[in-house]
What we know:
Blueprint: E1 9-14, E2 29-34, H1 35-39, E3 43-49, H2 55-67, H3 69-74, E4 79-84, H4 88-98, E5 104-107, H5 112-116, E6 120-122, E7 130-132, E8 135-140, E9 143-149, H6 166-173
Parallel strand pairs: 3-4, 4-5
Antiparallel strand pairs: 1-2, 3-8, 6-7, 8-9
Amino acid sequence: xxxxxxxxxxAFREGDEAPESGGCPIGGQFVFKTATEIFGNDRAIIFSxxxxxxxxxxxxxxxxxxxxxxDFKAQGIDNIYCISVNDAFVMxxxxxxxxxxxxxxxxxxxxxxxxxxxxxxxxxxxxxxLRSHRYAAVIGAGKVEKMxxxxxxxxxxxxxxxVSSPDNVMKYLQGGE
Length: 177
């Protein structure tokens, strides 16, 4: 059965600037875009993770997709999107703090997209609340072509990472499974 990308509306922030005295960027506005408007008919990679500013997400996953962005383009990928159950302010600051220029971050502040993708998990045991399971997917024309879902966390491996890594997704795009 083919999984379609849910056409939810995301709330982005655009135009915020940090005050000279420091503090939170302000002055912008909310901009609402649907998944259909964002993804269109592109062949893209979407990946999701438990949270911005968390170790694996900030050290490996987002920077890894950023570093290999043009290698993915050479494999026929139009865009790469990072989705997290965080608000637009957090996603923008996280992207800025890591120097991300090519991967586009998408705030799923309500978790609606993540829930409809079947990836919403309760991480209350570590104080996160509802967040996204770590995964990546190759999508095209609004459908999931290939899903890369990490195994569930366990006592022995509380944050599994490898299945959804840029290297693993690249292997698939180059003809591997």
